[in-house]
Amino acid sequence: MTVRIGVIGTGAIGREHIERVTRTVSGARISAVADLDTAAAEKAAARCGARVAASGAELIGADDVDAVLVASWGPTHAEHVLAAVAAAKPVLCEKPLATTVADCRRIMAAEQRLGRRLVQVGFMRRYDPGYREVKRAVEDGRIGRPLLMHCAHRNRSAPLAYTTEMAAQDSAVHEIDAARWLLADEIVSAQVVLPRSTSRRHPHLADPQVMLFETAGGVRIDVEVFVNCQYGYDVQCETVGELGLIRLPDPARPHLRAAARAGTEIDQGWGERFSAAFDAELRAWCDSVAAGTASGPSAWDGYAATAVAAATVEAQRTGGVVPVAVGERPALYA
Amino acid sequence: MTVRIGVIGTGAIGREHIERVTRTVSGARISAVADLDTAAAEKAAARCGARVAASGAELIGADDVDAVLVASWGPTHAEHVLAAVAAAKPVLCEKPLATTVADCRRIMAAEQRLGRRLVQVGFMRRYDPGYREVKRAVEDGRIGRPLLMHCAHRNRSAPLAYTTEMAAQDSAVHEIDAARWLLADEIVSAQVVLPRSTSRRHPHLADPQVMLFETAGGVRIDVEVFVNCQYGYDVQCETVGELGLIRLPDPARPHLRAAARAGTEIDQGWGERFSAAFDAELRAWCDSVAAGTASGPSAWDGYAATAVAAATVEAQRTGGVVPVAVGERPALYA
Amino acid sequence: MTVRIGVIGTGAIGREHIERVTRTVSGARISAVADLDTAAAEKAAARCGARVAASGAELIGADDVDAVLVASWGPTHAEHVLAAVAAAKPVLCEKPLATTVADCRRIMAAEQRLGRRLVQVGFMRRYDPGYREVKRAVEDGRIGRPLLMHCAHRNRSAPLAYTTEMAAQDSAVHEIDAARWLLADEIVSAQVVLPRSTSRRHPHLADPQVMLFETAGGVRIDVEVFVNCQYGYDVQCETVGELGLIRLPDPARPHLRAAARAGTEIDQGWGERFSAAFDAELRAWCDSVAAGTASGPSAWDGYAATAVAAATVEAQRTGGVVPVAVGERPALYA
Amino acid sequence: MTVRIGVIGTGAIGREHIERVTRTVSGARISAVADLDTAAAEKAAARCGARVAASGAELIGADDVDAVLVASWGPTHAEHVLAAVAAAKPVLCEKPLATTVADCRRIMAAEQRLGRRLVQVGFMRRYDPGYREVKRAVEDGRIGRPLLMHCAHRNRSAPLAYTTEMAAQDSAVHEIDAARWLLADEIVSAQVVLPRSTSRRHPHLADPQVMLFETAGGVRIDVEVFVNCQYGYDVQCETVGELGLIRLPDPARPHLRAAARAGTEIDQGWGERFSAAFDAELRAWCDSVAAGTASGPSAWDGYAATAVAAATVEAQRTGGVVPVAVGERPALYA
């Protein structure tokens, strides 16, 4: 049986997912696409042999759609995810699950009423081979009990529309999820330290930023977010435990010696860096849809990430330590 | 349209290909499998929903088989490939294309009579992201005109059946193809230098070996083959040019510091090391089958590799320099 | 002319300096040693052919002592340094210059009255080839204007006598000086973040700690101090600028592949890690003594480091951000 | 007691040694220098406070010279070394010990008549911290019994006077000695393989070259010599044993990320690369002179290296395998 997927949103990430499902995922195909920009939807549909749905709602309800992939603008996520849950269809939602904590709670409530998980959130790093190997090593006790985590999230440059808040909501949110997942622990406070900003940014932006998190278990995490670092896309993650430390590997690139320098090239974008992670994420999601099960980052994970990101945005404004209280994890997400 | 693939040979590599086509290649499925060991064939068929063909010949001729994947015992390759060409069906043949130079010539002759390429040889390293990036860099002139190549091919341990000749035919044959491809040059001589052998080998085996090749263009290549190196699976390839050198990257593994040591784990097998390469190879082959085109390593490449490996085996015996003359490349393979 | 050096303090670091001057520094010799533990002093003196002085004061005043090296217990530093300045003799004082800010000011006042620099503080990292190359690269604009610094200072294990305060005063003080020197900037505030402590420590100790500093120019610095990290001695320093980043190199150790692991051994102590730095420090100091000049970390540097360390200790207690005001730098130290 | 050293030859390497002894070696000073170029001798003498000797012979015989350092033109080495042995004075001779095997034998005969070792040959790599750590690891059995060695010796560019023979005599001679020392084994044959030469060389020169050596114990060694590699000075040495492999470390240089590239700078010359080795070599030699003992590479090592280099030059001409028979090692050099 081939899983028929409907995609809402045919922007850059939506088109990447469509291409990926079409080319590298067995047992799945795109059956319908929806976008407010009809021309974009038609173009995307033509490339993968899908139909254009009249709207996200129509797509979610349609008989030729077994599962929904939400890749539209963030503020519309909650509406589509809630509709998919109401239709009892599995949904993979790009991060964020929702832009407000209240909407995240609404989604969890809907799943709980239904009594089963349908929502997976697009935290693709959990599928990156490097992160997965780090996770295994930490669980195997290779570094002992974790105590500290040092992270960096660097982009070559940010567009004009990128705001100081997005450093938390769009960039660090990946580190927030990765830390929660690697440590199997919840974040309980956030602080933001602002160094002088680089001159190579749009004037409205505080860049770089250092975000500090504490977990319920007492682990301390620092995250450098630097979205105009100029030299490339660079994701670092080091976990320090009682017996040692483990670092996320840099991508495998050839070693070159020429012109008095030895080294490698640096990836320039997340698409290149996390290509294998996206492949694995979509394959795992389609498999779980076909099997009628749920796996991967849940609505709870999407909620916790949104809650921590919101506290981080408040910490940007106040300069102080902002507590985060995610509450008790519902049994459905145990 | 889904490409229906028939697989001949359900040993380890055959089963890996079946699993891969089934799970990670879109637009293709396994429709039939054949194996002299009927029980093995039935087991493999059951796992992917294919039928068991009565024989390789039946499979090749069947209407439900669009393309053939040959993963049987080396000495049977030529027969199956010739049958596939006779049936005008695309065929992906695991290396070697054939165990004798004469059989390789026969296959090329068949393709030439037909007037088009149907055969792809399973030199999967050409699809490894690291090798591909090295190739691009060499072509872009990043290291200037190549002069030397230093390679190593190490396995943790070899089974009892592994012979001194197989170090050339089964192991170094990958380096032989990779060198021809990276340098876009033909090998014209082979020499083998035998150090004392490791004590950790079966007594009949010369291990390690150093193979020396020269290309028509004057590039010199040295290849260490060491199939009982104990520490893991390790493939090294360094090309030295007039302006610099480039090295194949080691796999991206997390960096660990613990117990007074810093470093990474080492892959233990080729399946792990070249997993992404096999994915890309099969995807590219299925795409070219669907498109009715041919790409990747050709029968000519399979022939040249077999010819060089044969000279290397002779060099193992004589200790001297053995010339290789592959002759003029037919227009079909230009 | 050979510089005759008197050494006060013949503990571990004192004996190392004596050995170093005797064996690897030309143009200098140890003429006298002093220690409250007379037996230790006699043993050290015998090994290098020096006499035992009756006291630090006697040594400083003696005609056979051209310059003084203070390697005694920290709280005695100020007294010996002040005596050396009073005697107008050059003095190399192990860190800290003094344990209180007031004593550091007293020493600066004495030098200023004299109108010339006599004091060098033992911040040997400024002589480490790696740190020096980082300094040159930063000054050459290789990474653009610095914005952030990420540091780690890890020891295998700490003795019972090591206290939470010493993480700032004895360990991070090296990072404090290195950051001031690399950035040519003063630290204006300190904060300490305490993760859960490792179980592998003495119960009185908070370990690890994360210290956060801000400079007058707005650079933010984070320093992990972890003195029971178990795996070895490990010093990391990464400076992030507007154009790129630069990392202190790890020591050059052979790369080993064996038993499924690839990597290097890790140094186990600071003596091994900074051996070349100590050589260069002592050689530079003896040269400047011979030349009648002053170079290297000054009393001002010793004062600033002590002031920042004191603020860090206060920050350990309060949990908040503690300002540091070092005031105007006197002309003598411009 | 200060060792008084006379230096014959004040070219680049001679001046480096003079500077080194003067500045970084305790317990030794330069008392006399000799050079056919009197002006050069006077200039060198003035810088270190030594006198100018009338000739090498006068210097060797003089009362103010305890030990002799020969850094003159290679063909004059034998004469000076023989004179020093005749005068029963310790002598450190830059490589080669002598340019002919016959002269090397003459020197060994003179030492044997005297009944004690006076000669040390300037194979400074034995004092390089990286090589020493490799040696220790090999001796400790970390890689098991050695089987293979892969080496590279690359220079940015060679002067006009550099000849094809010098690739063996002046460049690979370092690898020849290092291999004999690391393996504690003698080389018994040499072969040279010539790839096409780089276009960036003087027309008379074959560059690069690959030299192949075999030891009495059956270890095979390949050495790439490439003296116009353009990108820098690069020395590689990898030893493969029954249990694993060990690689000489690259120098510790800061890691830089900027302009889409990650990596380090490459040393540009041997002086920079082996600076610590030269320091340690001269310190060890002066210590052994002071102690009246002998250590380090002996006349036997100098002889063996010259014999292997001579065979390598013959192999360059013939293209074949040239045997080397160093004979029985005299008891003096056991």
Would you mind describing this structure in some detail?
Four copies of one chain form a homotetramer. Chain A is of the alpha/beta class and 334 residues long. Chain A has two domains: 145 residues, 3-Layer(aba) Sandwich (Rossmann fold), CATH 3.40.50.720; 171 residues, Dihydrodipicolinate Reductase, domain 2 (2-Layer Sandwich). Chain A has ten helices and 15 strands. In chain A, a hairpin with a 2-residue loop joins β13 and β14. In chain A, α5 packs antiparallel against α10 and α6 packs across α7. In chain A, 58% of the residues are buried. β13 of chain A pairs antiparallel with β12 of chain B.
Which structural class fits the helix and strand makeup of chain A?
A: alpha/beta
State the end-to-end distance of chain A.
Answer: 30 Å
Helix/strand order of chain A:
EHEHEHEHEHEHEHEEEEEEEHHHE
In quaternary terms, these chains amount to homotetramer
- Helicity range of chain A: 25-40%
Percentage of β-strand residues of chain A: 15-25%
Shape of chain A: globular
| DSSP E strands of chain A, number | 15
Q: Number of domains in the coordinates of chain A?
A: 2
Low-pLDDT runs of chain A: none
**Overall CATH class of the largest domain in chain A:** Alpha Beta
Main sheet attributes: strand count, strand direction, barrel closure of chain A:
7 strands, mixed
Task: Compute the number of helices of chain A.
Answer: 10
Query: What is the largest interface, and how many residues per chain?
Result: A-B, 36 and 36 residues
